[in-house]
């Protein structure tokens, strides 16, 4: 375990003005609180907080964060309290420790609903003070480094959680080194065979080709010396998990995989970055489509660098990153660079991003998510995606995740532009809205008045912002349709009891039913959350009970204009009580289908033909034909008993057709006229109870669809 003086020395390396006494007191307090506690490995528990603090010194963080690391488990695992830490140290440190404690208690790999709720809490903690997340990431990194002492099932659970949540979060925050180490440590647990295989192939490759990294590093340094450019050059083979992910994404074997070596050139100023780029492209052949200039178009977390891939020695592809020293510090520390110290003062790195602004851009659309699945989708899209940079016709830069489309671009400009988008031009050429955008392209959005988002757009866009805006627009549009349908349902229901529906009556009913207002009430009626009859009964219980609601057989559904022709679909034969939808046919009016009818699949992209319908409330006549497929024993009198059973249920047989005759059984189709779904259920229950009925099913014939 690192002793307190060694820890202070690590802090003094970048912050000579550190508060030695504060760190000593925190070290002593933490050691006292955790005295007697052991880790799974058998070591004293306090070795863990000290190791976490040491990791944070590598990020050159302030005293408050270092002290928080030393105390981060005291509230959770000891008798210490927030009040005591605030009294002994400060309220700032107590709040940070409390924030880490709350994050530790979040079960981020639990059920979808719980995971969404906990991810919201994680983001709230980030928005209050990002240092809480930095301590938590360092805590997770040390736990992953020492994970072998845990039970195998616990190792797997922690590794999955790290791979899915903490590693991408570290990457999004700009701490790429931490992301890579967390991924590789998780990979070692989750797929040790694959990791060992890649390491063995690296060893074989090095044996065959020699130390490629050393050779290429010397080649780059030689070119820099010739040009008189002072710069540091570092090279390395990429991490096993990064190699394995590329093998899976590109479906290539290790021997066919290129770009497994990476090099960094750290210069003194921006001008030298571009001079180095010119030297490298002059000396080696650049790989088309693999150039990214994050200096002129930085990432939202402050990352700046030039990336290029070239064919190096023996045709091996290598990636070269070129950046200045200040850019490199931000690339290593990410958003944490905001708190970095040097020589006792807060570093004024011009490229460091204000964490508050970064968080606000990250969480801009999260609060609009309606449900858990939608929220988690937004988190994954916004937090864990790489970026591309495109231009508006005026030259403004729009940052989007990889795989974004012109629709995402439109919504990134403004929700109004996205909602009214009809087409787009990329680099002057008209393209489909589902086109995937690439770095550096110029995008022009073409809009039209009256255009509204389509349901199919959800599958086209990839940004959480666009998905949220589209869903909100669709919900509003659906709500308007439900209100219109609810008005018609309410009108019919009120007329049945001799009353006229009024805004005042609806407001009163809404208040009595605990619903917001009359508009909300109508929308719920239209969406079948509440029946119009229930509204009538709420207002006029005596009238509703006194007058039976006999439904006109000629107009059994609500949602059509009086002159609009309609008929029940022969393929699914919907009956009152079942959810229905109408499909318009030219020259035929509206055909009413059951909501689960397979025939509706062919209309999924023709939403303009769909009509919201509901059955009239009340008692329907026995006029809805349903075809039953019945298999009966071939005994005398069985068919007669079947017909009698149907008649006893007050249903009518309108047709009967034998489809199969065997020596021991008959299979026949019986057309039965019923009142509603309850009536149908009563008929089928009576038939199923008959011992000579072998099988009974409701017959649906898709060949009879319109």
TrEMBL record:
It is an enzyme of class 2 (transferase). Residues 627-701 form the ACT domain. It catalyses: GTP + ATP = guanosine 3'-diphosphate 5'-triphosphate + AMP. CDD domains: ACT_RelA-SpoT, HDc, NT_Rel-Spo_like, TGS_RSH. Keywords: Transferase. SMART domains: HDc, RelA_SpoT. Residues 45-144 form the HD domain. GO terms for molecular function: GTP diphosphokinase activity. Its EC number is 2.7.6.5. NCBIfam families: spoT_relA (TIGR00691). This is GTP pyrophosphokinase rsh. It comes from Halodurantibacterium flavum. The lineage of its organism: Bacteria, Pseudomonadati, Pseudomonadota, Alphaproteobacteria, Rhodobacterales.
